[in-house]
Amino acid sequence: MGGYGWIGAGRVAHERGDWDLAIATVEPHAQCYSVDHERHNAHLWHLDLLVKAGRLDELALLGRDDVHARRRLNRHLYETGQRGNLARRAEAGDEGARILHDRLRLEQNDGRNA
To answer: What pLDDT does 1 receive?
Structure first.
C-alpha cells in the first residue's frame, strides 16, 4: 500500500473520492465494538464510506444487526430529507428512524409556516 499502511491508503483513496478502493482498504480492519480503537474507528469510517459511495442497500443490510449502521443510514436519510424512507423504517420498528422522521416533519412544517 505504498508505505502508507492501511489507514494512509484509505485516506488517500478517500481524498480522491475512490469510494470502492477506500471501502476495500478499510473494511477488512473494521470491527464494531472492538476494544482496539483503530478497529472501531475503521468500522465507523467504513459506514461513512458506504454512504459516500451510495451503497445504501449494503448499509441497510448491515443495519439489521449493527446499531451503528442503522444510525448512519437514518442520519443520511434525515440529512437528505427522505421523510418517506424514514417513515417506512419507523413503521418497521426502528425507533431511531421514528425520532428523526418526527424531527424532520416538524422542521419541514416549520419551514412551510415561516
So the answer is: 44
